[in-house]
Each structure stands twice: as structure tokens, then as C-alpha cells.
Design a protein that fits this description.
Blueprint lengths: L17 H14 L2 H19 L4 H8 L2 E6 L2 E6 H26 L6 H26 L17 H9 L7 H25 L6 H19 L5 H18 L5 H9 L8 H18 L10 H17 L2 H25 L9 H6 L1 H27 L11 H10 L4 H11 L3 H36 L1 E7 L10 H10 L9 H6 L6 E7 L11 H19 L2 H13 L9 H8 L2 H13 L28
Antiparallel strand pairs: 1-2, 3-4
Helix pairs in contact: 2-6, 2-13, 4-7, 4-10, 4-13, 5-7, 5-15, 6-7, 7-16, 8-9, 9-10, 11-12, 15-16, 15-18, 16-18, 17-18, 23-24
Main location: membrane
Function: Na(+)/H(+) antiporter that extrudes sodium in exchange for external protons.
InterPro entries: Na/H_antiporter_dom_sf, NhaA
Length: 617
């Protein structure tokens, strides 16, 4: 019997809480959605823009400048709410960025230097070109030349949120390239902030910060795996960095790199030990006795629970917990307090002629894609790296345009780079304009590529073996693909699946539905079988046993639903009416047929023709 219901709720829970569990799972999915996170930030930015140009703006500013802090006798230590967000909450954001960077450097896309070289060098190109464009407009002006760092950073949340709208209609290589580029871009931005946009450093506080960092490293070396000591000492590190003159958010990155990414549990022994504990719990369980009275049973399962929780590395636990708070709390708050471009009392004409506006806007909108594409072209043509699998240069151009979405990081740097409020507002206007245009243009460009793939009958099904939702994995695309992969279990292929080696990361199945492809001379039912064979082949090679089992369980609940959409549309677009009628006739005789019969051949189904594409992105 399957251990999950149709909605994903685990049947191990009592029936009275099944509804709660289903709602909890939906909440988890919602709060790990790149698209919805970007939507929240966009909504916050729109609210800030609207309020900034109404009569409520003064009260709005007054609220965010409210002082908060702690009293101790006659002493008061505090800062404004806006500074709490920009200096403390954003340090938490940088902590999450640091954890994601650490993951990529440890086991992710940045471990294989040849594989990572293309997005890393593309990120370098995407930093250099915007600087050049910005300085073309501002190099001769000492008051604005220091703002060259503003158009250099890509907003990973917004860029991937926009890409999420395309779902599985683009190859996973585009998502991996863009997210890895954004991570490398973040590393460069962190260095730029630390080196160029701090105040004159205090040697005393820098020494204190270095001492605290050494203590954190020693904690890692002596194998302290509890998160609490790291977070407490990390708070001391933040204060020392804050007092040193280097921007305090750097403390978040430093803390991320000392939090252990290994497990304190001996994983080789854990399987046998946990199996013994499960058997002990089974022997101790008394069905007729209330659980509260079963001391031996409770003690056994409590021991198992305590150890099992510690199997997951501290860095992974912290990253998973921070994700929803950062992307649905901290970043929307940052947008609300920093996207407030008010035109009241401003000389709009002066803003529109300010070289800061054009340096920032064109740096992001033109400099980013130009630098990314030129560097990528040079790296590929020099054979130092190759394009990601199934990705062409048009895909690369679309991803490069999305690299010009620089919302969060760019606004953050603008606040550090300029002291004049007019220049800050002008830079923000350039950032918002460029990010909006880059987002729309990048989306449309990739959508056109998706439509071209649809006309060729090509569909992309992406999946991941990593249970922890991560930007590079495309969590929503993975769920969409899993919902479409049906009927993949075959006794003849079990030995091949069991023999496959386990490997994490993202993999992709490309299904050719076009002329000369799977549909040549076959029924729609044949497509199901062909897809099943291709899915099993790829999952077997990747060693994704758990995904195989999960997909099979889901298929049992959705046995009559199609694994592909738009098959009939592909046939119609081929212009071969005879082949369409022939396939649908055979499909009517096929017990696994999906279209509902020949009489529906002329009905529009509204599908987009791509396998694995749903609007949930």
C-alpha cells in the first residue's frame, strides 16, 4: 500500500489530522516557490512606489524611522526600523546566500570547475560590462563615479521567479546556468560591498571580528554541530563587523562558511542502529494501552528521533528553515522600505537627465546581457567549456537578459554608494526601470524559444533527487514533471533500476514528439509507452529509486490522466490529417488512451503542447 494520499499527505498520521497535514504541505510548497517569492517582493515594491507618491509618504517614512532598541538603566542602544531591516535582517539574507554559495562550492554546480567555468566567467563578464557602461556616463563626475557597483548584481530571487513562469518549457540547463551565474554574481557583489562600500575601518573592531571568526572556525574544527552556539557567537561577530565600518551584512556570509555541512552521526552505522530501534519500538508497542502510558515505547522512539534529527547537517537545517522567512519576510520588507521612489518635491527633469539614471539603467539592461554573452561566447569557442545540455545560444541570450534584473542587490548597493538622496532616488528609478524591462524582455525571449520547441514537438521534463528545495533545482518544475511521469514500473527493468548508481542533482528527460519522432505511425497510447521507457532509462541511469516509487504511487491515483499534454495539437500542426485520424482511431482501441475519443479531435484543449508544463510555476 502506498504510504501517501493523493494530496501527498503521509498516511502514517491519524485520520483526524490528515487535513492539517495536507494544508501544511501546501504551505511548505507555497513558501518554497521562487515565483511566489518574486511576486511578494514585486507587490511590496509596487506598494512602496504608490505610497511614495501619495500624501501618506511622510507618515510612511516616519514609521520606518521609528527608533527601536534596548534600555539598560539610563543607557539606550537602538536603531531605526529601516536600519534594523538593512543592517540586521539583510545580514540574515546574506547568511542564506552564504549557505547556498557554500552548498554549490561543496557539492553543487561549482565543484566541477569545467562545468562551473561557463557561468562563473559569464558572471565576471556580467560585472565588467555594466561597470564600463556606467563609467561612460559618470567617470567625469566625482560625485557619481563611485556608484559603478550599482548595476553589477543580479537579483537571484526575481530572475529565477520570472524563469519559473516558464516551467518545464525551457531546458533545466537554462535554470542551472542562470542560478549558478547569480550565485557567482553574489560572491562578486559581496566582495565589492566589503572592499569598496564600507566606512573607514576601525582596526580595533576588525581585530575583534577576526578573533570571533577564529573562535567560530575552532568550533567547527572541534565538531560542534549544534546551531545555537554558532548563532549566538554569530551575533557577536555581527556586532564587531557593524562597529568596524565594514558593512555588517558581511558577517552573515562569514558565519555561513563556518557552520558545519557534515553530519555528527556515523551514517554507515545509522542504518543498522535505527533498524534495531525500530524493532525495539515494535516489540515494546502495546496496541491496547494509551501511548502516554507506554514508557518503554516512548523512550525508544524518542531516542530514535533525537539521533535522526542530527543526521541532517546543521547548514542544511538552517538553510531550509531560513528560506521562507527570507524570501517571504525579509526581502519583501526590504523592497517595501527601499523601493520608495517619490517624485513629489523632486526635479523630475533633472532626474531624467542625470547620468546616474542612464549609467544604472543601461548598465543593467544592456551591460549585463552584453557582458554575459560575450564572455560565454569566448569561453565556449575557446573550448574551455560547452553550452549546457539541450541549451542553445537563443536560450543563453534570454537568460543573459534576465541577468539584468538587479532589484535587491542593486538597491542595497545604491544605498551604500550615494549619500545624496536625489542620486539614491535616481539610481533606484534606473534599477526599477531596467529590472522591469529586463524581466519582461527575458521572459518573452525565452517564451518564444519555448514556442519554437513546442512547434518542433520537443518537451523537457526536469527532476531532482535533492529533497531540499534549492534555487538551482527548480523545485516547481520538478514537481510539475513528477506529476506527469506515469506508469514507469516494469518488472523487466527492475534489475536495471536497482543496479543504477545513486547520484543527486538535477537531470532532464527530453521527449521528441515531432515528425519522425515518437508519433511516427503510432497511437497516442504509444507515446505513453515510449515516454515510460525513456523515463525509466534516465531514472535508472541516475539511480533515482525513490522518485521511481513516488511516481508509481502517484500514477495509481491518476491512472486515467495523460503523461503528456498537447499531443493532438502536435499532430494537427504537422498538417497530416490522415495521420491524426489514424492515431486517434488506434487510440480509441488502446486501453491506455488519453484523448477521450475521436470525436474530441477538433476540440481546443488549451494546452501549450509541452510535456511537463503547468501554470503552478
Amino acid at each position: 500500500m502506498a504510504d501517501t494520499n493523493i494530496d501527498g499527505t503521509q498516511r502514517i498520521f491519524i485520520s483526524e489530522v490528515q487535513g492539517h497535514q495536507a494544508r501544511y504541505r501546501k504551505l511548505i510548497k507555497f513558501t518554497h516557490s521562487s515565483m511566489k517569492a518574486a511576486g511578494f517582493m514585486l507587490l511590496a515594491a509596487v506598494v512602496a512606489l504608490v505610497v511614495a507618491n501619495t500624501g501618506a509618504y511622510e507618515a510612511f517614512l516616519g514609521f520606518w524611522h521609528t527608533e527601536v532598541g534596548l534600555f539598560f538603566g539610563g543607557s539606550f542602544a537602538g536603531m531605526s526600523l529601516a536600519h534594523v531591516i538593512n543592517d540586521i535582517f539583510m545580514a540574515v539574507f546574506f547568511l542564506l546566500v552564504g549557505l547556498e554559495v557554500k552548498y554549490e562550492l561543496t557539492v553543487g554546480e561549482l565543484t566541477n570547475i569545467r562545468q562551473a567555468l561557463l557561468p562563473i566567467m559569464a558572471a565576471v563578464g556580467g560585472v565588467i560590462a555594466p561597470i564600463v557602461i556606467y563609467l561612460l556616463f559618470n567617470a567625469a563626475n566625482p560625485g557619481t563615479a563611485h556608484g559603478w557597483g550599482v548595476p553589477t548584481a543580479t537579483d537571484i530571487a526575481f530572475a529565477l521567479g520570472i524563469l519559473a513562469l516558464l516551467g518545464n518549457r525551457v531546458p533545466s540547463g537554462v535554470r542551472v546556468f542562470l542560478s549558478t551565474l547569480a550565485v557567482a554574481d553574489d560572491i562578486i557583489a559581496i566582495l565589492v560591498i566589503a572592499i569598496f562600500y564600507g566606512h573607514s575601518p576601525s582596526l580595533f573592531w576588525l581585530g575583534a571580528a577576526a578573533s570571533v571568526l577564529v573562535a567560530l572556525v575552532l568550533m567547527n574544527r572541534i565538531h560542534i554541530y549544534s546551531l545555537v552556539p554558532y548563532l549566538l557567537v554569530g551575533g557577536v561577530l555581527w556586532y564587531c563587523v557593524f562597529m568596524s565600518g565594514v558593512h555588517s551584512t558581511i558577517a552573515g556570509v562569514l558565519l555561513a562558511f563556518v557552520i558545519p555541512s557534515g553530519s555528527r552521526v556515523n551514517l554507515k552505522n545509522f542504518t543498522a542502529w535505527s533498524g534495531d530501534k525500530v524493532r525495539e519500538a515494535h516489540d515494546a508497542y502495546q496496541p491496547e494501552t494509551p501511548v502516554i502510558a507506554q514508557g518503554d515505547y516512548i523512550e525508544t522512539v524518542s531516542s530514535l528521533s533525537r539521533v535522526a534529527r542530527q543526521v541532517v547537517p546543521p547548514a542544511t537545517r538552517l538553510e531550509h528553515r531560513l528560506y521562507p522567512w527570507v524570501y517571504f519576510g525579509i526581502l519583501p520588507l526590504f523592497a517595501l522600505t527601499n523601493a520608495d521612489v517619490g517624485f513629489a518635491g523632486m526635479d523630475v527633469g533633472a532626474m531624467l537627465t542625470d547620468p546616474v539614471l542612464y549609467g544604472v539603467m543601461l548598465g543593467l539592461l544592456l551591460g549585463k546581457p552584453l557582458g554575459i554573452m560575450l564572455m560565454s561566447f569566448a569561453i565556449v569557442k575557446s573550448k574551455l567549456a560547452s553550452l549546457p545540455e539541450n541549451v542553445n545560444w537563443f536560450h543563453m541570450l534570454g537568460a543573459s537578459i534576465l541577468g539584468g534584473v538587479g532589484f535587491t542587490m542593486a538597491i542595497f548597493v545604491a544605498n551604500l554608494a550615494f549619500t545624496d538622496e536625489t542620486h539614491v532616488a535616481t539610481a533606484k528609478l534606473g534599477i526599477l526601470a531596467a529590472s522591469l524591462l529586463a524581466g519582461v524582455l527575458g521572459f518573452v525571449f525565452l517564451l518564444l524559444q519555448a514556442k519554437a520547441a513546442q512547434r518542433r514537438g520537443v518537451a523537457y521534463l526536469s527532476a531532482s533527487g535533492d529533497d531540499v528545495a534549492r534555487q538551482t533545482a527548480g523545485d516547481e518544475a520538478t514537481r510539475d514533471a513528477e506529476e506527469l511521469l506515469r506508469d514507469i514500473e516494469s518488472p523487466a527493468l527492475k534489475s536495471e533500476v536497482e543496479a543504477a548508481k545513486k547520484r543527486g542533482g538535477v537531470f532532464e528527460i527530453v521527449v521528441d514528439l515531432g515528425e519522425g519522432g515518437l508519433l511516427e505511425g503510432g497511437s497516442i497510447g504509444d507515446v505513453r509507452e515510449a515516454l515510460r521507457e525513456e523515463v525509466v532509462r534516465v531514472l535508472s541511469e541516475e539511480g533515482e529509486d525513490e522518485l521511481l516509487k513516488k511516481v508509481q504511487r502517484e500514477f495509481e491515483e491518476h491512472e486515467d490522466e495523460p503523461p503528456l499534454t498537447g499531443v493532438e495539437e502536435v499532430l494537427r500542426q504537422s498538417g497530416d490529417e490522415e495521420r491524426l485520424r489514424d492515431a486517434l482511431r488506434r487510440e480509441g482501441e488502446d486501453v491506455t488512451g488519453m484523448s477521450g475519443g475521436f470525436e474530441e479531435a477538433g476540440k481546443p484543449d488549451g494546452s501549450d503542447g509541452s510535456a511537463g508544463s503547468k501554470s503552478d510555476r
